[in-house]
Amino acid sequence: MCGIVAYVGERDASEVLIEGLRRLEYRGYDSAGIAVQSGSRLELRKRQGKLSNLTLALRENPVQGNLGIGHTRWATHGRPSDLNAHPHTDCREQIAVIHNGIIENYLLLRRELEAQGHTFRSQTDSEVIAHLVEKYFTGDLSAAVYRAVGELQGAYAIVVIAAGTEQVVAVRTVSPLVVGLGEGENFLASDVPALLPYTRRVIFLADGQVAVLDRHQVRITNLRGRPVEVKPSTVDWNPVMAEKGGFDHFMLKEIYEQPQVIQQTLGGRLIDQSGDVDLGLGLDFSQVQRVHLVACGSAFYASCVGKYVLERFARLPVEVDLASEYRYRDPVVPEGTLAVAVSQSGETIDTLEALREARRRGAKTLGLVNVKGSSITREVDDTLYLHAGPEIGVASTKAYTGMLCALVLLGLHLGRQRGTIDQKQASWLIAELRRLSGLVQQVLDHAEAVNELGRRFQNARDFLFLGRGINFPTALEGALKLKEISYIHAEAYATGEMKHGPIALIDANMPVVMVATESAVYDKVISNLQEVKAREGIVLALVSEGDTRAAALADAVIQVPRVSELLSPIVNVVPLQLLAYDIAKRRGLDVDQPRNLAKAVTVE
Ligand code: G6P
Question: Which architecture characterizes domain 3-241 according to CATH?
Answer without folding.
Answer: 4-Layer Sandwich (3.60)
